Amino acid sequence: MMFLMHPYAQKRSRYIYSVSILFMVVGLFSMYFHMTLSFLGQLLDEISILWLLASGYSIWMPRCYFPTFLGENRPQFICLVVVTTLVSTFLSFLKPTVNAYALNSIAVHILYIVFQEYKKTSNKELRHLIEVSVVLWAFALTSWISDRFLCSFWQQINFFYLHSIWHVLISITFPYGMVTMALVDARYEMPDQTLKVRYWPRDTWPVGLPYVEIIGDHKNC
Q1: 214 alpha-carbon distance from chain centroid
Q2: Cis-peptide, bond into residue 67, ω within 30° of zero
């Protein structure tokens, strides 16, 4: 995905590469955790997800949603995100049982932003991406909640795959969410650029990996 998003990253910010790298780190730590089921593996998995979300917030959060006391100053917002993430990282060691719930609760704020942008835009591609992302996330969250709270029921019917389904769905959701936020961000930070959603390996395939392509410039009057 880093390769596919390379032209966009060159125009917007090279820090976007850090998001893709952190996504791979999350995958490695998640694999380590599920192989060992260790406390260390759990913390590495959850902390890497926390920093992945923080990097996405820092890059793509539209300035109009910044806290009022920051104005629209992105460097100050990034400092706030980093400090908050550092504090949250420390707190994750104190009460690790609530980490997963805290991470999933962040989605509420992201959904709020996505909903606001959905109402604002008439861009069919952006609206489609938001719809697909929300549906995928809803299915993923349903699998996670069912696995957490109805575990004994699923064991009785010998169905042990909900947690695996959660991982698959959330892994698919992330690229869609990443491209969605890139399009939202472009409305504010790249008004002179035209972004087009593409799908690897082919746009015509029913399923593909989404990414954005800069197809041209236009001037605002």
Answers
A1: 21
A2: no
